[in-house]
Amino acid sequence: MDVLFLFRIKEHQEEMLRSEFPEIRFLFDRKTDDPAIGSSEVIVTYGTDIDESVLDRAKNLKWIMVASAGVEHMPLGRTAELDIRVTNVRGIHKTPMAETMLAHILAYRKKLQDVYAQQSRSEWNKKIRGTELLGSKALILGPGAIGGETGRLLQAFGVRTYGCNRSGRQAEYMDEMVSFDGLLEALPEMDTIISVLPSTQETKRLLGREHFAAMKDTALFLNFGRGDLYEEQVLIEALEKGRPSAAVLDVFETEPLPADSPFWKMKNVTVSPHISALSGKYVERSLEIFIPNLRAYLDGRTGEMINRVDPERGY
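Structure for D-2-hydroxyacid dehydrogenase, as requested:
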């Protein structure tokens, strides 16, 4: 059986896979024009290089392992038609992303940019006044694995956490829950608003002018999910009006962010070039999900494979 990797992994990781699965022919660091596309039963990919033309050539394909949480670039409708199961690595980003978001929140509340600016001027000024997280409220759009870990860290600082999902169903490390329908009503109370939502038909343009206008003029907004959550011009106008007070953006409608984007020069915006999920342990954690799934697949226990993607929901 052929298992085709469309990206490079470390040599010791290749050796480990070959040692644990001697019956499998692993093909590493290949491209979609490789003839092995036609013989491979499993393809491991970051997801952006799989389109319908690849699926048409992959006559033996039964399973696609996407080494990413987002699968919005995948032709999920076609994989469903061909009965190709798709799994992802949902959950592996929670540690680096939650740590990064907490760092940005603390930097904003403790006025660290002002501290750094003063140092660059060799200026001793004790008038900088930060604020505490203790007793504040944070709304987390998408309280799944990443949102839950973020909630856990915030709760350790005494923050009251509110999760927001489609149904309002309870999620881990959330003190209270609201549904998408109750979002507008909840926003005026929030000191921090965080989105880690995936890109789906339900989440595209979920936030409009009325949502930003409802935020406090001291609120910090962070988007670490997907860039189509709102129209960027709407957010730009909202920030110019002071609601929210500031934003930390890791994702954008167009990436790389164009050089002429207003975000680059806005003093109340931090541009993060989609790096919050990056970690030296990314592939290692991906393989920790892939290997048990591969064992289940080989044993015919496909019902036990984790992180199955629902092609209709898109996650």
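Residues 94-271 form a domain with the Rossmann fold fold (CATH 3.40.50.720).
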